[in-house]
Amino acid sequence: MRVCSSLNATLLTGAAYAAPVTTDDACSPAIERDINEFQAAFEELAATAKAVHTASLANSTGTCTVDNIVIRKEWSTLSSTEKSAYIDAVLCVQNSAALTPTSLIPGVRSRFDDFVGTHINQTLNIHYTGTFLAWHRWFTYNYEQLLKNECGYTGTQPYWNWGLTADNTTKSGQLFDGSELSMSGNGEFIANKSDLQLTLGSYPIVYLPAGDGGGCVTSGPFANMSVNLGPVSLPLNGGDVETGTGLDYNPRCLERDLGTEVNALYANFTSIVDLITSRTNIYDFQTWMQGYPGSGSIGVHGGGHFTIAGNPGADVFTSPGDPAFYLHHGMIDRVWWIWQNLDLETRQNPISGTGTFLNYPESANTTLDTVIDIGYAVLGASIAMSELMSTISGPFCYTYE
Ligand SMILES: [Cu+2]
Fold first, then answer.
1. Coil/strand/helix, residue 198
2. Which region is the signal sequence (predicted)?
């Protein structure tokens, strides 16, 4: 019912704002039809983008061709063998020795942690900045390469299409169903949790409904996982925030507070379609995606992160400590890819923003020459923004299904 209600509200306003949903209308056939229409609209946008992308690949003179391009797929479309291979590779990087010296980040214990530590150290320079989309594209790509090069994975980085779980986040067959062929499910249920409260500078607090878990993940491949780093800035239900450097060794279980309400409010097909179709310049697109400050919306980026929630999922700095991070950012990258390909001429290369979070403190504009470096995640992998704007040039050769 909540999905239907929130869609009803978003249809009225034409955008996925976080306005409280007050309607108690039952799920009428008309609204069910609208849900399907938005899914169909999204799939049409994705198909159009794919056609443009395929044509530009055919015309490209680079080394990426139809013969060597790899295809990233939605989690639920993977075969059991493919799911199992991905999970095994993630467990492998979690059991491989770290490269980061403990003199720099004392808490790192694995190659997986090298990525978490890099994200912690750079968080204030890669969110609400000019680098946000390209940095996370590069970060996710290098995680995919890590799985391949160091753990023998032969598949590609899967993604989580949030719209598919907006009516039930832990739905069977989807990535959070808790089975052995999932990314593990919810945390143990903790009752009577208050809203999560998100603060951003002096903007009004955004209240997010608590999820249906809250404790340690108890089933699936990551039930015994050790989260080693963080927290840095972890919002707790009720308004407190747990803070720290996040860099010390702090082994604990993986906690999640998966909730359909946040999924349905912010990361449904309506909000994805709205983002892609009504945000026509890069500033609007990337800012609405992350939650336009003061709008009350956390965007699809926040929507995915806070659907996962928990510790470390709700901590912006430490969020890659939950392995589902990379499926969420696969979808973030795909949505950018769709948006770019719908108007390649004007959307391939534009950049907006600076090198600091909401330009605080003030810093230089990000440009195509700005260099990104992901530290000990991949040594010597510094690269200019200009190399990261297309998925079929520079270091990349991948597409989305
Ligand atoms: Cu991030």
1. strand
2. 1-18
Ligand 1: distance of its center to the CA of 120 in Å?
A: 9
Q: What percent of the chain has pLDDT over 70?
A: 91
Ligand 1 centre distance from Cα of residue 27 (Å):
35
Gap from CA of 24 to ligand 1 centroid (Å): 35
Using omega within 30 degrees of 0 as the cis cutoff, is the peptide bond preceding 350 cis?
A: no
**Is the sign of the CA dihedral 256, 257, 261, 265 positive or negative?**
negative
CA 15 – CA 33 distance, rounded (Å):
18
Q: Residues 83-95: pLDDT tens digits?
A: 999 999 999 999 9
Three-state SS at 74: strand
Q: What does the DSSP assignment read for 289-314?
A: HH--TTSS--HHHHHHHHHH-HHHHT
Q: How far is the CA of 125 from the centre of ligand 1 (A)?
A: 10
For ligand 1, the distance from its centroid to the CA atom of residue 314, given in whole angstroms, is 11
Q: Which residue segments constitute the domains of the chain, with CATH numbers given?
A: 69-400 (1.10.1280.10)
**C-alpha of residue 119 to centroid of ligand 1, in Å:** 7
Q: Which residues contact 124 (CB under 8 A, 6 or more apart)?
A: 356, 357
Statement: the pTM of the whole predicted model exceeds 0.90: yes
